[in-house]
Structures are given as C-alpha cells and as structure tokens.
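Student: Send me a single protein entry containing the residue sequence and its fold in token form, directly below this note:

Tutor:
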Amino acid sequence: MSLLPQSKTPHATGAPLEVSREGAVATLRFSRPEAMNAIDVPMAQALLAAVQGLAADPGVRAVVLCGAGKAFMAGGDLATLRADPVQGAADLLGPLNAAVLTLASMNAPVIAKVHGAAAGAGLSLMLQADFVIAAEGTRFNLAYINLGTSCDVGASWALPRLVGLRHALEIALLGDTLTTTDALRLGLVNRVVPAEQLDEATATVAHRLAHGPTLAYGAMKRLMRASFDRDLDTQLIAETAAFAGCAATQDMRAGIEAFFAKQPARFEGR
C-alpha cells in the first residue's frame, strides 16, 4: 500500500510522458515502453513543458522521475539521430537541456526511481536528480563512447562531481556496463532495494521530502551545486544570503518553535 494519498490527477495516457499528482508529489513517467523509453523529440518537449509547470506550482514539493515498462530509459532515440545527426541532436538537446536546468533550480527535490536500465541520456538524466533509488538488477551504462560521441544532458558536469574525475573518465571512456553494486559503491545511486520494494521505498522518501521545508531544500540544492565553482569566501557569502532568505520563511519560524516545544516541526513549504 502506498504511503501517499490517492491521486486526484490521473496519468495522461497515450502521451510520451505521463504526468500524475499524489498530494504534493508529482510523478513524471517516461512512456515509450516499446522503445525502452528512448527519448525522442516529442518526449523531450513534453518533459520540458511538464517540469516548467511543476516548477511554477508551489504545491509541488517533490518530483519523481521514472520509466514505464522494463527500463528507466535506454538513452536517446537513435532513429531521431540517424537521418540527420546534427539537426536531430539540436532538436533533442534544446528542450532536454532546458528541462535539466529547470529541475536543478526548482525548490522541490527530484527523485529518480530507476529500474531495468539507465543508459546514455537516461543515465545522464538520472545523474541530475537529487536522490536516486534503484532496483536490484538495474544496469547502468553511459554508452555514448560506444556510438562514437561525447556525452550530453549534463553528464560531464554531474559525473565527476559524484564519483571523482578518475572514475568518471573510466565510466565514460570504457563504456562498460555497471551493476547496482558498482553504482552504490561509486555514489551514482543513494539506495538499492529489491525490485518489488522499489515503489514503496520511493514513495517513503518522496512523502518525507514533500513534507519538509521546500524553500530550504531549494536553497540547499543551489548552494551545493554551485559550491564546486566558488572559493570559500564566495560560498560563505552565498550561504549567508540563503540563510537570510530562509530566516524570513514561515517554515523556519515553525522549525524553531517546534524545537523549543520539543515537537516535530510541521512544514508547509512557505
């Protein structure tokens, strides 16, 4: 049984991306199962439109990315690239890059619920999530080098930050498939659970995050993502500004009062 309230917004069926809402948790499900959810232009455009809508909705306090069928996502749709690789890449990467930037900047934490396979652009998208839960048996492969190309969708930014430069180059240049044991050891994922527990494990984390201090989550995300490109002095200034912003929120006041009352804080994302 799910920990979340029943959805009042049904899946949009027949679309390359299914969007649903359960309370404060929004789920984006890649829905080309016949192609292992390989992302084509319509799916990329749908993803951008969806995340822009979620980012503008303060009622959304956690976002789950997942895939329909047998896999999270097998990568970019090679049929899109086959006829005209240059134009096909431009058509795909324009909306995909904009979607990644929106996911990174939004206050709501982003959770990737991964099963089956995450390869190519699918792995790149997974790397952009704030939290990753994978089912046992999932396989991971950056894959680009096997097609004679460099990576995209922010993989070259995220991967060295997650696993370090040496491991990132090994993953990217050899193009080997990684197991969930490898992914957990390297820090590509946060948790690995039995496949039959993936839905419930993700729902538990999403429910917890959706009831947290959403604005503080957003500030924390932005601080940590920017920290690699700043010196300590600049980061301290950014932290001070972010803390001042949080100090003006209802959630911080609620957290302080709950501390003195020796009760759990009830955050509302405001």
User: Anything to note?
Assistant: The chain is about 50% helix and 15% strand. The domain at 17-210 is CATH 3.90.226.10 (2-enoyl-CoA Hydratase; Chain A, domain 1). The chain has two domains: 17-210, 214-261. Confidence is low (pLDDT under 50) at residues 1-12.
